[in-house]
Design goal:
The chain is of the alpha/beta class and about 425 residues long. It folds into 2 domains: about 100 residues, Urease, subunit C, domain 1; about 290 residues, Metal-dependent hydrolases (TIM Barrel, Alpha-Beta Barrel). The protein has 17 helices and 16 strands. Strands 1, 2, 3, 4, 5, 14, 15 and 16 form an 8-stranded mixed beta sheet that branches. Helix 12 crosses helix 13 and helix 13 crosses helix 15. The longest helix has 17 residues. The radius of gyration is 21 Å and the shape is globular. Bound molecules: zinc ion. Zinc ion binds next to loops. The site of zinc ion (ZN) has 5 residues, from loops.
């Protein structure tokens, strides 16, 4: 046994939502090898004293754009179209591979700091993002965000399609599946059927999932209906986008028929309540999606529209938004919210056999929270505290496959000093400095 967590409160996230006070969890060769109320006979290499601590599965952030940490706080208090067209897209033109890699590493450090062990990301410069993921030790499903704004599509020469192929060939399955590659359609309104069909066919024939933004704003949803006579979900379904394991971010304006369709296709919705609230997109009807049979997980979206990657904040926002939308204080109980951040996220990523629970044989993707701080005392209900009282700042250790990637302010796999230095040297940092002068 490599590591033993002793006398620790264990939130298993198993089907019965078992919580074991003062239990023991062992890790061997990156897997969970021991779970008991009694100490093991076997002597571990290292013991982590868990008194006053809570151990739970690492959280899974199913919608990020990691490099956008570089644009955090650049544009606030505007709607999605203004935010994107007037602020974000012009600045993204200044990005290059080096700045993207540094910004991605910064976001990965933030994820690990806040207890996230796996992300689903879509962006450009995918090779550099994959390098950052590979070096850091975090898990990721990566997609190259594809758009097609002309009627001419030639899959042999389309840059987005070529990047998807390159990403798949180089990185899919890296480190025994720590990196998985998904195909990625940025959104219905930024592409057309030629790209949808080409990517869907490529995903199906290579065993990839599909990531996309779906019905994020009312104008995008209604615009699609005006143009095609179908909702975005119905339209994309006609072009086979949901034939593979699909992860649809936002789903704010889905209609009941869309929810039934997506449930039938086994598509996952990524609920991003903080970003949706901040951009005034609206409130997704999570309860209706779950009732329709959809798998609903959680995402932060980018730190340029959130403005952090703290999935604990997202859990609380999801619970509160469901109450406000339904007028029912019991709309989304803490157990359901915690499932969204763990088990449902693993399912969305196609990783449900490896992570999302503390269970023998699963990967040791574990996080430890310090429950001795004033805001977590007394603790009548651990699950309640995790959703309503704790934050990412209470995470003191993050482990992926048995390796500690964050503990007590230290990042053993990320040189944060040189990441910050690299960012300060790069184009977009200079743009900011010029504008400030
Ligand atoms: Zn997004």
């Amino acid at each position: 046994m490599d590591t033993l967590f002793s006398n620790i409160t264990v939130v298993t996230m198993d089907a019965a939502m078992h919580v074991y006070p003062s239990a023991f969890v062992g890790v061997t060769d990156g897997k969970i090898s021991y779970l008991s109320k009694a100490a093991p006979q076997e002597k571990p290499t290292q013991i982590i004293n868990g008194e006053g601590m809570v151990l739970m599965p690492g959280l899974i952030n199913c919608h990020t754009h990691l490099p956008m940490s570089i644009l955090r706080g650049y544009a606030d208090d505007c709607d999605l179209a203004t935010w994107l067209n007037d602020y974000i897209l012009p600045r993204e033109d200044h990005l290059d591979g080096r700045s993207v890699k540094a910004a991605a590493l910064l976001s990965i450090a933030e994820c690990l700091r806040f207890g996230v062990t796996s992300v689903s990301d879509m962006y450009m410069f995918s090779d550099e993002i994959a390098q950052a993921v590979a070096e850091s030790g975090i898990k990721a499903n990566l997609g190259h965000s594809c758009t097609l704004l002309t009627e001419d599509f030639d899959w042999l020469h389309d840059p987005g399609f070529a990047q998807t192929v390159a990403l798949q060939e180089k990185w899919n399955g890296f480190d025994d599946g720590r990196i998985r590659v998904d195909a990625c359609i940025h959104a219905e309104y930024t592409s057309n059927y030629q790209l949808w069909e080409a990517l869907s066919e490529y995903a199906a024939s290579n065993g990839l999932g599909m990531q996309l933004h779906l019905s994020e704003t009312a104008s995008e949803h209604e615009g699609c209906k005006d143009k095609y006579g179908l909702t975005p979900a119905q339209l994309l379904d006609c072009h086979h986008v949901f034939d593979v394991r699909a992860t649809a971010a936002h789903c704010v304006h889905l209609e009941p028929e869309d929810m039934s369709l997506l449930a039938h296709r086994k598509a996952s919705a990524v609920h991003c309540p903080v970003s949706n609230l901040k951009l005034a997109d609206g409130c997704a009807d999570v309860v209706a999606m779950i009732k329709a049979g959809m798998n609903v997980c959680l995402g932060t979206d980018s730190s340029a529209s959130n403005n952090n990657l703290d999935l604990f904040e997202e859990m609380k926002a999801a619970a509160l938004m469901a109450k406000a939308k339904s007028g029912n204080a019991a709309a989304l109980p803490v157990e359901a919210v915690l499932m969204m951040a763990t088990v449902c996220g693993a399912r969305a990523q196609g990783r449900q056999a490896q992570c999302g629970q503390i269970k023998l044989g699963m990967d040791a993707d574990l996080i430890m929270l310090n429950f001795t701080a004033p805001h977590l005392i007394p603790c009548h209900n651990v699950l309640s505290h995790l959703v309503y009282a704790a934050s990412g700042h209470d995470v003191v250790m993050t482990m992926v496959r048995g390796k500690i990637l964050y503990a007590d302010g230290q990042y053993p796999t990320i040189d944060l000093g040189s990441v910050v230095h690299e960012l300060s040297l790069h184009a977009i940092g200079q743009v900011f400095r010029e504008e400030k002068d």
